[in-house]
Amino acid sequence: MNPAERPALSFIGVSKSFGPKQVLRDVSFDVFPGEALCVLGRSGTGKSVTLKLIMSLLKPDSGKIFIEEDDITGLGTDELSRVRRKIGFLFQDAALFDSLSLYENLALPLARLTKKSPQEIDSIIDKMLRQVGLGDDKSKMPSKLSGGMRKRAGLARALVLEPKILLADEPSSGLDRITAAEIDELLIQQKKERHTTVIVVTHDVHGARRVGDSFAVFDKGQLVARGTTDEVEHSANETARKLISEY
Predict the structure, then answer these.
(1) Could you tell me which residues are beta bridge partners of residue 21?
(2) pTM (2 d.p.)
(3) Residue 3: exposure state from Cβ atoms within 10 A (0-12, 13-18, ≥19)
(4) Which of 57, 79, 131, 208 is 20 to 30 A from residue 73's alpha carbon, by CA?
(5) CA distances from 33 to 2, 13, 88 (A)
(6) Phi first, then psi: what are they for 87, rounded to 5°?
(7) DSSP characters for the chain?
(8) Residues 39-54: pLDDT tens digits?
(9) pLDDT single digits (tens) 56-111
(10) Which domains does the chain have, with CATH numbers?
(11) Which residues pair with residue 65 across a beta bridge?
(12) Alpha carbon 58 to chain centroid distance?
């Protein structure tokens, strides 16, 4: 992480409400290329909404969101599609297509969004599945995969287009401690080997401390702490101090 670089992601005064309920209030932060940011907070504090705003699945009521130099709050459909290709999303439930094999799940975005040949697609998928430990499972249907295998498959699909930013929503949810640690190691590997910017929303503080270079703690729609483990542990905000130490 080099603060002299252009941020990979910037929130500038972002607010979001649903009816009378304000979910985010004047949130500002930067994430730099190659940084792993873990987003912590109690349920209902705006963590998942933050991911949806980054993906442009939601629009902020006010403020700006930049992906590198692009203000995504002001982009048209075509430009927004271009920027979205910089982002991979590991969904909480992996979100695989049940009617497609593992290979077909990974091939779909490559076939739709690139001009790569079938041979190139084969090579990319084989490499990616080996990387996540599923090299012998490409013909399996999602229903035949364990929970940990589904998370690995979801991660492989999120990474198949080589995104600059990887978003992960509760990547250790529903997994035993050993399998969760293996998913964490895959996230760390992406950061180190590809300089991928990783943003993880999680309730697993133990995993967050393992993966994260830094933390953002949300409480009641506000960003109440932002920094390294030590900085959050010594934050003036009591909620932040408690959350980072609960493991």
Answers:
(1) 18
(2) 0.91
(3) exposed
(4) 208
(5) 8, 21, 14
(6) -120, 130
(7) --TTSPPSEEEEEEEEEETTEEEEEEEEEEE-TT-EEEEEE-TTSSHHHHHHHHTTSS--SEEEEEETTEEGGG--HHHHHHHHTTEEEE-TT----TTS-HHHHHHHHHHHH----HHHHHHHHHHHHHHTT-TT-TT--GGGS-HHHHHHHHHHHHHTT--SEEEEESTTTT--HHHHHHHHHHHHHHHHHH--EEEEE-S-HHHHHHH-SEEEEEETTEEEEEE-HHHHHT-S-HHHHHHHH--
(8) 999 888 889 899 999 9
(9) 999 999 999 999 999 999 888 888 888 988 999 998 887 899 999 999 999 999 99
(10) 1-86+164-247 (3.40.50.300), 91-162 (no CATH)
(11) 11
(12) 16
Look up residue 85 and give its amino acid: R
Which residue matches tokens 């760390």? 188
Q: Which amino acid is at 179?
A: T
